[in-house]
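Usage

Read records sequentially. Each one opens with the input sequence:
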Amino acid sequence: MSTFRTPVPIKPSPFELTYKKQSMLIGSCFTGNIGEMLQYYKFPTMINPFGVMYNPISVKNELDMLMHKKTFDAKDLHQYNQTWLSFYHGTRFSGDDQTQVLQRINQGIRQASQWLANTSMLIITFGTSRVYELKKDHTIVSNCHKIPSSEFDHYQLKVDDITQNWQPVIKELRAIHPDMQIVFTISPVRHWKDGAVSNQQSKATLILAVQQLLESFPELDYFPSYEIMMDELRDYRFYDEDMIHPGKTAIHYLWEQFSNTYIKKPTRKTMDKMEEIVKASNHSPLKPRSLEHQNFLKKQIEKTRHLMQKYPHINLQPELNHFIQQLEGTQP
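and closes with the structure output:
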């Protein structure tokens, strides 16, 4: 026996993600794990423009609003504990000034709608099939904003609830963006609040729903992040301290499998060059004002400028600014 695990086979993808192709990732917090790795390697990426979304209906609502460029007004907001909030957004959009909240939300929608219109790869992560529905108007919320649970009905969606909501969204997306690669995945994060049995039922519902969508739309893709975590990385040493979220080793392994699936060798060579610059920008010198560190910064400025000329479509301006500011700070 050559290995002590059960590797999850992943079909090679005909789609190739490159530095000239934008990506958008929406859904559960696991979306952020992959998205942050893409951003680390300087891929043009947008992550969760409405904030983290856990259930399929909230993710579907987000895409609807982005495709139709919805404008929020006062009637779309709610107030709780002197805070204005949107049940379609995460808490980072909330605030005590209604006008400012609306400005943040609408500006975010405008930016994300434009990004989606130019997106080549859309990665959708479902976290749970259990939802919270506001009793007074039957809105399935994306975030409860710490409002008492008595204000909500909590229940699990059925497979048909998910597929029937998602089929028209996918059709519209395919009509507007026929070349967009849409990838579904199930979050390996365990939703333990409702118990072990409920978590497994919830994940099973998501898996069956996504499978039905893949059967209806064969051009869609599926990345088995949940299956990799459950089979290849089933040991608790691959979890974070809370034993709920994947740990750093698991996240890096999942990223490795993802990048092997969607990123080809020529692009991976460019990734290596980007990582050198990113690592250098994160470097903490022992002697910031030393001649050695000044020479290091000058070398990085020269290298970054060279890469910016060679790859003008990759945004290395933040790293260049960092090196220049650091060098200026070493001067007497």
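Summary fields computed downstream for this record:
- The chain has a mean pLDDT of 93.
- DSSP finds ten helices and nine strands in the chain.
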